[in-house]
Amino acid sequence: MPAPSMDEKATGIDSASQQGDAQKETITPHKIAILTLVKTFGEMKLEVLNKRCSDDDTSPFLSRLGFAMREQSVLNPKYRRTFCMLVLKLLQDPDLTLSQLHLLLLSKQNDIFREFLPEFHKNMLNVMSKGIEGLMSLVKRVSQLLTEPNSVNPIITKSSILGLFIRRSSVVFEQLTCSGVVAVFKVFKRYCEACPAFLNMDWMQAAPDGPPEEEHDEQKTDLTTLKEEKGALWTRRQADLFLAQQSLLLQKNDASIDTKKLHTNIQQLLRANPDCAEAYFLAFLNFLRVRDFPAALHSLHNCFDRGGGLYFDPNSKQLCGNSNDERARSFRYGALNLATLYATFGHKEEALFALKECVMLARSAHCNFCLQHALSWFCKLSDQPGKEKLMECSIARSSEFNLGYLTSLAIQSLSQHVSNQNMSPEKIFELLSQSDILNCQHSLQDLVGNAFAQKASLWIMYGRPAMASLYSQLLLHSEAQDLNPEATCAAVCHLAMQFMAFGDQLTSAVLLSYAREKFPQLDIQPVWMRCEQILGFINFINQGSWQHAKVAAEQLSATDKWESAIRIAELQFAQGDREKSLQGLNSMAKKSVTDKTMPLIVKICSMSLASKLLEVSPFSYSSHLVKALGMAANHNLAPLRYKIILQIAEHQLQMGLVSQALQLINSVMTMVLTHCPLHDQGSFLFFKAKCRIYEGNCRIPSKDSTDHFSILEILGQARQCFEKVQAVAKVKEVLLCMLLLYHLHNLEAEKFKVALELRVFEEQLASRKTSHV
User: Fold this and answer.
1) H or E element: which one contains 392?
2) Scanning 29, 56, 411, 767, which has the fewest C-beta atoms within 10 Å of its C-beta?
3) pLDDT tens digits, one per residue of 515-532
4) How far apart are CA 286 and CA 278, in angstroms?
């Protein structure tokens, strides 16, 4: 469940309650430079339009040629778009020094035409040389651009971003006293004098042809660190825009977020706005992404200390406190976010304690929104029996208060919880359909992605890989993939596992490589890392690479300890070390008594593997198999049920019950060949062929049998399945069986052909050193 968002309801911070002069507009030297930029471009454009209207053809040729070049530059859509984006960047970003502004104007990404920079330098010197008169005339001239050449089609529209900036700056400048104007000019003078190259023509040397390539690279490096300058000034509006943009990226869990750079920008913003509670909350979310618990806790405390504490009132020059309602709201949402933090790091007791405090504060304030968030987290953390009833209560209450997001999320959580119970699949998908309706009604695209990924996982569990691939591809072709990267990564991993299961290792490796590059986020890495290690283990154990399989199983423990334990036990069984494998399964059984997090699938797999290890004890063997089969059937886990049926049939064949084993296999053969992976298909086909061989005369096949050709056809199909998934041990077993069958039926030519194939195959295995996915 994601952390509460940055809006007023989820954090208890009201941006309108921020007091002081944070929102007051001020005239800074950086803004004067922007006004000069606007004046320079506006006058050049106005000059071109006036000359075009005069249409004087008697001027000299060179003069007309120069005008034509300037006209082409000023009116070129490329340069106009570049200039507009440059000014927008300057307005949104913190204030720059004149040297930094010079670098920005010379950079390749801001491809300003050649005539602009000299004119800008000339206007800046003009303002500085004329003093207060030049400053006042600058503001007046820029304001005139809002009505020239005519009010219908002016150079700058009043309602545009530039128009609003000019009008607001003009109003603030008119409100300044005489001493205030003098102070502004003195600051602007120091601003210009801080750039040594400004007062001479060195500032203009790179303008005609642009700086050399080496200087461009150096400038690019400087531009990436402009926001990291300690002296940069953030206004409140710039800070609000930055916080909104970064909050949106964090909400999407965008991979383009540079955690270190974001932290530096937040620290710089806080130096300019030390009481900005939203910046501390953004820092909390940033630290939460990288799992830095102490820093996240410190940022959260600072956030809600400022959100509901004291502030400085510039009118009374005193420290004042917010109202009781605002402080209470800050405390209860602070407790809720604290519980979220503890739950994220696995501190369950502390999280429950913080939730209880949040519930008490929310009840006293009659805040149903906060109560529902707390109830949702309590459902996630609770391990008490009857948890589904609590979740149903949460769904009903959220629906009653028209909280669409919480209702849909609670429905998805409930469907995930009951999928581990014995609820039928049709009821689970009916639940998810209710979530789909809410997602469509409220345009909850991130939960749409959750629903697709959840349905794909359920179809894999129920043994329908085609439906799982369908929902994974629906997610990858929808808009939800951009808003929910975790679900998108899960969909890519689902497809990678499907391609691997059906013998396309190359496509599977390409998809895993894509997931690794596309989703470097720390909280999404476990999704593709788990898939990568599982597929690597399966491939290595199929090829008989025990050392590589062991490494993959041990690395899997970092993301899934139970899956890692069962894989290690499988590897030890494949190596013939039954004692260690049984010890590992017993250790898992003991841990599962106290730790209730063991997945049902792992539990059934451990019971199935334990039955193989206890073949010498028929009673224990049968009891484990029957129990595992009952659990798989009750929970509709078709792939596991088919594997257990195959295991039971193998046991029947060993006891001489050939017809019963063949009948049991035939009862599920159609479903296996339709939906199961190639390795399972090959195992069923190979076992069916063995049953057909023994069917004639118990364990001694008849030489006069007429159905050996159909048996060989089945063995050929099994061999193809094993070869596609590179199960070398199984391929060797099939070749040996074919060799024996040819020998029993005196088919010498075919026997020698298969013997040659077997020899070549063994030589290839002997020459193989390593294996990779």
Assistant:
1) helix 387-400
2) 767
3) 999 998 888 899 999 999
4) 12
In DSSP notation, 160-191 reads SHHHHHHHHHHHHHHH--HHHHHHHHHHHHHH
**Residue 264 pLDDT greater than 60, yes or no:** yes
pLDDT confidence of residue 488: 93
Q: At what angle do helices 485-501 and 465-476 cross, to 10 degrees?
A: 140
The predicted-structure confidence for 29-52, as pLDDT tens digits, reads as follows 888 888 988 888 888 888 777 776
Phi-psi region for residue 3, left (φ > 0), alpha (ψ -120 to 50) or beta?
Answer: beta
What distance lies between CA 263 and its chain's CA centroid? 19
Banded model confidence at residue 356, pLDDT cuts 50, 70, 90: very high
Q: Do 296 and 259 touch, CB atoms closer than 8 A?
A: no
Chain CA centroid to CA 186, Å: 49
**In residues, how long is the chain?**
773
Question: CA 447, CA 405: separation in Å to the nearest integer?
Answer: 8
- Angstrom distance (rounded) from CA 298 to CA 293: 9
Q: What is the pLDDT of residue 454?
A: 94
What pLDDT, in 10s, does the model give residues 165-178? 888 888 888 888 88
Q: Dihedral of CA 111/115/116/121: which sign?
A: positive
User: How many C-beta atoms surround the C-beta of residue 557 within 10 A?
Assistant: 15
Distance CA 92, CA 235 (A): 9
- Diameter over CA atoms, the chain: 118
User: For tokens 């929104």, what's the residue?
Assistant: 369
**331/12 Cα distance (integer angstroms):** 8
In the numeric block, the tokens 């911070």 are attached to 13
| Residue 319 dihedral angles phi and psi, to the nearest 5° | -80, 130
**Amino acid 54: pLDDT:** 59
Amino acid identity of residue 720, one-letter, is Q
pLDDT-derived band at 429, boundaries 50, 70, 90: very high
Q: Can you tell me the distance from the alpha carbon of 220 to that of 215, in angstroms, rounded to the nearest whole number?
A: 8
> How far apart are the C-alpha atoms of 609 and 612, rounded to whole Å?
5
The Cα 415–Cα 45 span in angstroms is 63
**CA–CA separation, 40 vs 610, rounded Å?**
82
State the DSSP code for 206.
T
Instruction: Count the neighbouring beta carbons within 10 Å of the beta carbon of residue 586.
Output: 13
Indicate left, alpha or beta for 343 from its phi (over 0: left) and psi (-120 to 50: alpha).
Answer: alpha
Q: Which of 12-26, 315-329, 653-667 has the lowest mean pLDDT?
A: 12-26
Q: Judging by beta carbons within 10 Å of its beta carbon (0-12, 13-18, 19+), is residue 79 exposed, middle or buried?
A: middle
The band of 459, judged by pLDDT with boundaries at 50, 70 and 90, is very high
What integer is the mean pLDDT of 267-286? 87
How far apart are the C-alpha atoms of 309 and 710, rounded to whole Å? 84
Q: How far apart are CA 280 and CA 287, in angstroms?
A: 10
Q: What is the three-class DSSP state of 403? A: coil
Helices 525-543 and 561-575, packing angle to 10 deg? 10
Is residue 105 packed enough to be buried (19+ CB in 10 Å), middle (13-18) or exposed (0-12)? middle
